[in-house]
Design goal:
Blueprint lengths: L1 E17 L5 E24 L1 E5 L13 H13 L4 E7 L10 H16 L6 H9 L5 H6 L3 E4 L4 E4 L7 E6 L6 H7 L17 H9 L6 H7 L2 H10 L4 E6 L6 E5 L2 H10 L5 E6 L6
Parallel strand pairs: 3-4
Antiparallel strand pairs: 1-2, 2-4, 2-5, 5-6, 7-9, 7-10, 8-9
Helix pairs in contact: 1-2, 2-3, 5-7
Length: 284
């Protein structure tokens, strides 16, 4: 039994303010990209355990309380069942890279074990379990485009999206989200004004260019290669928008044609991680 954990990409991210407890209020349009981790239930009757493999497994070594394991325990507690199952996580997404890999893994664990344990819970029933694990987990449960508010945990429908293709690029530098928020300075931003839908990718990119990522400058101060990544993406034929996702350091390019996105991925330096393809929800 398998479950995909697709990358979460913030097409824009506005910091609206800061709560008294230190958490920041956000406004973002999140989509799910072409790259993903893969979670497999190897043995449904074994004691609960997680093995991590894959290209980026080393980034999680020594993490005894992986978020996917915490999700499994939380679901078992909420459902009143014994936690069980040997899990294998194929870690294909860079760690601490601004594309919600850990949150996506947690959401994948909730979906996978919901099926394996025969719970039959709806996504709405899984949401509070996910929200207790982290602000990004709720939007990852359905892995569909959504508007994120609150501290990231308030989910609203996204505008209807036209056919678009994404290029994701990471320079191989991990960035801790708290450090990026701590480095941020300047005024807060208002929420973005978005239409109900876009007729095509060019119109979508035009509106998104009026938005921004309020963490990009802070992240680039901590990770100077981000500027080079953005320049490399923006210089590719057919790129409509180049921007950093989340707290970085992964950046994305928005394209109207798959061929342009794939050619751009091939043009990135070999030392960088790159992935190109359609939005996750467009794969069906």
């Amino acid at each position: 039994m398998h479950e995909a954990a697709p990358a979460k990409v913030n097409l824009y991210l506005h910091v609206l303010g800061r709560r008294g407890d230190g958490y920041h209020l956000l406004d973002s349009l999140a989509v799910f990209g072409p790259a993903m981790d893969q979670l497999t239930l190897v043995d449904s009757q074994a004691p609960l355990a997680l093995e991590v493999a894959g290209a980026f497994a080393a980034g999680l070594q020594g993490e005894a309380d992986n978020l996917a394991l915490r999700a499994a325990r939380a679901l078992a507690a909420a459902a009143g069942v014994a936690p069980r199952g040997a899990l294998l996580l194929d870690k294909r997404l860079p760690v601490a890279s601004g594309i919600g890999g850990g949150s996506a893994d947690a959401a994948a664990a909730l979906r996978l074990l919901n099926r394996a344990w025969g719970l039959g819970w709806t996504p709405g029933q899984l949401l509070p379990v996910g929200a207790a694990l982290g602000a990004d987990v709720p939007v990852c449960i359905e892995s569909l485009a959504a508007r994120m508010g609150g501290v990231g945990n308030v989910i609203a429908p996204a505008p209807r999206l036209p056919p678009v293709w994404l290029l994701l690029v990471n320079p191989g530098v991990a960035l801790a989200t708290p450090a990026v928020f701590a480095a941020r300075s300047g005024d807060f931003s208002p929420p973005a004004q978005l239409p109900d839908s876009w007729p095509d990718a060019a119109a979508m990119a035009t509106d998104l260019r009026a938005c921004g990522n309020d963490l990009e400058r802070a992240a680039a101060s901590l990770c100077p290669p981000i500027a080079g990544v953005l320049a490399a993406i923006a210089g590719q034929p057919g790129c409509l928008l180049a921007r950093m996702s989340g707290s970085g350091a992964t950046c994305f390019g928005l394209f109207a044609r798959l061929a342009h996105a794939q050619a751009a991925a091939a043009a990135m330096p070999a030392a960088w991680w790159a992935s190109a393809g359609p939005l996750y929800e467009a794969r069906a």
